[in-house]
């Protein structure tokens, strides 16, 4: 009942759980094969994906029942993919809690991934839509091939003394995290009853959102120490959370930026500490405050937050253009920046409300 209580307020996960509970979830010996998946879903924030599904279904006028089925299938497969990524990357923690393969072992985790991926495919079969099925199977195959080529683990390159450029690092993050955004859009497009000439041209917007999602996901794995993050936590608690995230073994964009701007001697020092983290399983207690000092000193936090904010601005502009085009309205003065520069306001004529904060934005169709 623990997982059912935790998922009670999450309609997408609730649907996925109901779907998988209809069939046997145990292998010979009474082992629950769904346990690693259920463990992982507890520490994964799916709210952004839920918001995107709700928005895209409105753009493409996908019926609610079909959209929920797509959402259920995507969640089953997305969580399974995260479990495989964590296992392949040998990450010990996910959001401060032990990763599934650490708790249940690699073999049982992989079995759970296979089982839940099949459940995800079977969930989508309910649509009886060959286009949707083709999109999903193509994505599963692409993920498998990419994972075998080890292209989706940008942070593992640090352990092999190979450091990609910032742009290459971001592209690798997009392959790892952003592909789920494209999958949602492609599935909704395939399920749309609209003729092709009436569908919104959202490719550029989705590409921007996929990049934002990937970078934000990477940044969220290393808790910020600003007052905007978890305001109820004291500074010391935030510092400890940051240290735990560093020990998860992630080679984040923060580290990549620091290596690109530091003088050669300090960059080499940071590289050596990253390698030592790999050897010993975590940064030493002496290394952690030093790494934090380096990241603060070279402006890595400001760089990543600035990148996120610029992407948010570009996404907002695309959202407005997409909506105006959909409603046949002129741009005019529909959008304006608030006086305190903390967000945007939108004319009611646009038909949706935008909730915008410095580190997160959500667009909801009215």
Automatic annotation (TrEMBL):
<keyword id="KW-0808">Transferase</keyword>
<dbReference type="GO" id="GO:0008299">
    <property type="term" value="P:isoprenoid biosynthetic process"/>
</dbReference>
<dbReference type="GO" id="GO:0046165">
    <property type="term" value="P:alcohol biosynthetic process"/>
</dbReference>
<protein>
    <submittedName>
        <fullName>Isoprenoid synthase domain-containing protein</fullName>
    </submittedName>
</protein>
<dbReference type="GO" id="GO:0043386">
    <property type="term" value="P:mycotoxin biosynthetic process"/>
</dbReference>
<dbReference type="InterPro" id="IPR000092">
    <property type="entry name" value="Polyprenyl_synt"/>
</dbReference>
<dbReference type="GO" id="GO:0046872">
    <property type="term" value="F:metal ion binding"/>
</dbReference>
<keyword id="KW-0479">Metal-binding</keyword>
<comment type="similarity">
    <text>Belongs to the FPP/GGPP synthase family.</text>
</comment>
<dbReference type="Pfam" id="PF00348">
    <property type="entry name" value="polyprenyl_synt"/>
</dbReference>
<keyword id="KW-0460">Magnesium</keyword>
<dbReference type="GO" id="GO:0004659">
    <property type="term" value="F:prenyltransferase activity"/>
</dbReference>
<dbReference type="InterPro" id="IPR008949">
    <property type="entry name" value="Isoprenoid_synthase_dom_sf"/>
</dbReference>
């Amino acid at each position: 009942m623990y997982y059912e209580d935790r998922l009670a307020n999450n309609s997408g996960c609730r649907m996925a759980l109901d779907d998988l509970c209809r069939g046997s979830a145990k292998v010979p010996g009474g082992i629950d094969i769904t346990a690693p998946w259920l463990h992982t879903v507890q520490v994964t924030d799916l709210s952004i994906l839920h918001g995107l599904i709700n928005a895209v279904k409105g753009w493409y006028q996908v019926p609610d029942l079909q959209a929920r089925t797509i959402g259920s299938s995507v969640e089953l497969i997305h969580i399974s993919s995260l479990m495989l990524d964590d296992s392949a990357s040998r990450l010990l923690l996910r959001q401060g809690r032990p990763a599934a393969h650490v708790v249940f072992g690699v073999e049982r985790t992989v079995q759970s991934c296979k089982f839940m991926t099949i459940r995800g495919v079977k969930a989508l079969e309910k649509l009886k839509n060959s286009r949707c099925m083709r999109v999903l199977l193509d994505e599963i195959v692409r993920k498998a091939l990419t994972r075998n080529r080890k292209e989706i683990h940008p942070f593992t390159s640090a352990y092999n003394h190979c450091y990609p450029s910032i742009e290459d690092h971001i592209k690798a993050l997009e392959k790892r995290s952003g592909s789920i955004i494209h999958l949602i859009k492609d599935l909704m497009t395939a399920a749309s009853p609209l003729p092709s000439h009436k569908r919104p041209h959202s490719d550029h917007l989705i590409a921007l959102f996929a990049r934002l999602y990937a970078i934000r996901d990477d940044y969220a794995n290393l808790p910020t120490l600003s007052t905007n993050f978890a305001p109820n936590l004291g500074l010391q608690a935030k510092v400890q959370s940051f240290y735990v995230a560093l020990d998860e073994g992630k080679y984040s964009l923060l580290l990549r930026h620091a290596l690109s701007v530091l003088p050669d001697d300090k960059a080499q020092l940071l590289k050596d500490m990253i390698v030592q983290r790999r050897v010993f399983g975590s940064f030493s207690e002496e290394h952690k405050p030093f790494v934090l000092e380096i990241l603060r000193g070279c402006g890595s936090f400001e760089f990543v937050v600035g990148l996120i904010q610029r992407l948010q601005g570009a996404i907002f502009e695309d959202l407005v253009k997409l909506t105006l085009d959909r409603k046949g309205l002129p741009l005019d003065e529909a959008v304006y920046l608030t006086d305190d520069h903390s967000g945007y306001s939108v004319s009611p004529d646009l038909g949706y409300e935008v909730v915008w904060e410095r580190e997160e934005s959500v667009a909801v169709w009215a």
